[in-house]
Request: fold
Amino acid sequence: MIRESLDHLLAMAQRYRSEGSRRQAMEIYWMLSEDHSETVQAQAAQDKLLELAHIYERDGSRHQARAVYERLL
Reply:
């Protein structure tokens, strides 16, 4: 049951991201990463956060990229 809920949250975050709602996606990714850190979904969320940090950096939003990198540490 919990695994299914976490899978659903991860899918929801991915939909938000694909629709251009980075902020909403990131909120879910952070929740999964920090509140469920020992799960497969948390690792997937961390991977997505790292991807977003790379995108921020590439787009010249270095401050936002740095904030993500530091929080992931």
In short: The radius of gyration is 12 Å. The chain has one domain: 2-72. The chain is about 85% helix and 0% strand. Helices lie at 2-18, 22-35, 40-58, 62-72.
